[in-house]
Structure formats: C-alpha cells, structure tokens
Amino acid sequence: ESVVNRIAAGEVIQRPVSAVKELVENSLDASSTSISVLVKDGGLKLIQVSDDGHGIRYEDLPILCERHTTSKLSKYEDLQSIKSMGFRGEALASMTYVGHVTVTTITRGQLHGYRVSYRDGVMENEPKACAAVKGTQIVIENLFYNMVARRKTLQNSADDYTKIVDLLSRFAIHHIDVSFSCRKHGAARADVHSVATPSRLNAIRSVYGLSVAQNLIKIEASDNDPSSSVFEMDGFISNSNYVAKKTTMVLFINDRLVECTALKRALEVVYVATLPKASKPFIYMSITLPPEHVDVNVHPTKREVSLLNQEVIVEKIQSVVESVLRNSNE
Ligand code: ADP
Ligand code: MG
User: Fold this and answer.
1) Which DSSP state fits 30?
2) The total number of structural domains that make up the chain
3) pTM score, two decimals?
C-alpha cells in the first residue's frame, strides 16, 4: 500500500516547485498577510514556508496529513467549484509520502503553539507544545528521499530554485496585499522581496524591476452576456518599448494561478500583428468568471485550464489588447 501511496504522491508533487505552490496556496487560503519561503539545495534538502495566517487547530493536527482531509469543503460545497479548484486535501498528505514534513502552528488567542512531524500520512509523535508567534510554518525535508530516480533527475536538472523564484514572483504581483519573500538557504538577501502595497504597478516594479514596470499599459475588459460569455478581466501588458526574448504571461483565473496556452498564443499573435518590431510580451492578467465556467484538467498537477466559451473570451481579450496597443503606438 505504501508503494502505491508513494507513486500517487509523486504524481501530485512532481518537483520541489509543486510543493512550494501547494504550501503557498495553503498560506493564502489561511488569510496570511506575510509569506516567506526558504529553500535549500533547490528544495530537495529543505523547503520551509512560514506564514502569519490563522493557524491550524490542535484537534485538527492528527488528521491533517490524511488524504482527503480538507477544512475547505464547506466553502466549496458545490461540486462544480470543487472541480474548478482542483483536488482537495491531497497536497499535504502527498508530501508526507515523499518527504519529511514538520508543522509548527499556533491559532489565535493561544499562548503557545504545537510542533508535529508526519510520515506516510500519519503523525510520528504527539504534538509538542512550543513557542510560536503567529501562523504556520511547514518544513519539508529530504523531498523524494525514497524516490531515487526522481532525486537523480532533479539533481542533474537546472536548478529548481529558479522555478520557485518565478512562482513567488507571480504570486507577489497578484496578491499585492500580501508580503512575500523567497530566499536561498545561506544567502544574505532574498530573491523575491515584495512588501504589501495598494499599487499593482509598485508590486511589479519591486518584483520584475523598473524596466518592466515602466513599459506597461493598463487594460480592462468585461462581458456580461449569458448567451456568449460572462467575465471580467484586468491587467497590464507591455508596450512597444519593452524588450524580452520570451513571453511572460502571468495569469490568474478566479485568484488561482493557472496556464491557458490558447490565450497566451492568441495574445502573442496580436503582438506580432500590431507591433511587428516589438519583442515578446509581458502580460499580467486577472480574469474573474463564474466558477462553474472553469475546467481544470483532471490531472492534479496540470494548471492548464479551459473555459466555457473560451473562444469568445479569447477573441474579446484579443481585440481589447489590440486596440490598446494601437492607441499606445500612435
Ligand atoms: P486543501 O488545501 O485542499 O484543503 P491540503 O492538503 O493542501 O488540502 O491542506 C490540508 C488542510 O490543512 C487544509 O484544508 C487546511 O485546513 C490545513 N492547512 C494547511 N496549510 C495550512 C496553513 N498554512 N495555515 C492554516 N491551515 C493550513
Ligand atoms: Mg492546499
């Protein structure tokens, strides 16, 4: 049974960056205002995510890492939205089958916190009382210690740390009311360091730099016609002065970081058609639509989404981007 669990867990947590994404999303779900990530050896030795969120209750600790344990079901009662949020109650459990997980947490009004470690879905010891300030810290050590081939591949592949920095950068420019930091173990300074701000442009400047932030144009679009499409979109897109060899597309749909290849390609096409000499674009977009209109691919790690009325939505966004680019270039 444990081999089966390990294989399944290895599918949910494919690389260190997938673990970081799940942990940061949990911190966001816990209403944190500050999230710090520390990484050692590309995440294979250590991933530590600390937040100042609402914490985990003592009585929830024994079952925390059992599969399908989630405190979030009441919020996502209807099946459609469970589907749109991806798998529930799988992430932490999965991590305990492929790494050593230690949770330190304190809930509001408590004088001390608790620390407890998990392996293969179960607590290794009774939670021990410990000092804690606020929120939750989750540490994953020796990720894939029991998956020799996976460890080898990751050790030889380009640093996963770069992917983690990229991930945190994306979170930081969307959740601008949250402070983020991401640091490599032993490094003096953080590679992502963004302080909560009311201005998205400020956040983009602090994460991606002035060369990006000063070349952005604000965009907005919406539709509310149930017979064609219902959505709201706002974001920033690069102008003709922006220079890059690769497209950066940061896409949030209903506040979840996702990929939508069809939309990305469609926008690249608009750039080539409208600004033939311009480089690949930088695009940040936040789209809101009825949860039941979002379909996340069945595979838990795939972030690719498809949308109901996707063609209509993509075309509408394309035409807004096109007219904004034309006006900016006159
Ligand atoms: P899910 O997020 O789908 O509920 P997870 O396996 O990611 O499943 O997490 C299981 C549960 O652990 C969550 O429902 C939540 O109650 C709790 N939890 C995990 N991380 C945190 C955190 N940082 N702060 C508060 N609660 C957390
Ligand atoms: Mg989760």
Assistant:
1) T
2) 2
3) 0.93
